[in-house]
Amino acid sequence: MSSVIQSGYLKRNDGSHLENVKYDLLFLKEDCLQDIIDLQDLMVKSLPNPELFQPELADFYKEQLIKDKTVIGAVTYEGLIAFGLFRVPGQSGDNMGRDLGINDLNKVVHLELLVLHPYYRGNSMQKLISRTLIDLIIERNYEDICCTVSPKNYYSLNNMISLGFSIRKIKIKFEDKLRCIMHKNVLKQPDSTWQEVVDVDGKNIAIQERLVKDGFEGFALKGTEGNFVISYGKRTS
Description:
alpha+beta; Aminopeptidase; 8-stranded mixed β-sheet; 3-stranded antiparallel β-sheet; 6 helices; 11 strands
């Protein structure tokens, strides 16, 4: 591990005991590989629906960890409890800029794999790590940030929309998983205006698929996990 990016306190809840614990957010290096694999396995086992998350193999993480400051993690007294990373796909076939018709693929970055220990849910760690990664991406002069989120994952959809991402496309990724491709251009003004706005039940994937094919973007979310609505519209600025 390396120098601390920031520190703070989190609520840790194991179901029988609630406590405040100190965390450090820092860049992760190769010596953290096994901790990353173990945390990913733990989170996958805790998910109510395995379709919500696409795990990665150790080789993927090993390749990312040797790159300079692309993986960050939160550490408490019990070790690594959260991590996230970004990846520069370049001209590779999986560059999501191809899905979205982005001309300069070298300006595209993938925001990937936000993993959290189940005892630390409810602390907005996904948003904190995402925001920190976005700042790092902007510092390196990339322009288009893409990520994938399951259309059933209310919390991740809500977090990414609150960070200025919009749903640009819905399609099968990772061979068999339906995903929203979400996008943020860091050069655009954060407060876009929208026209032809329509609210769609978050469970109605068919209508959402039709809207994005017609040039609409999902830009706002309201409601709760079991009953939420996504606002779609066409960007005017």
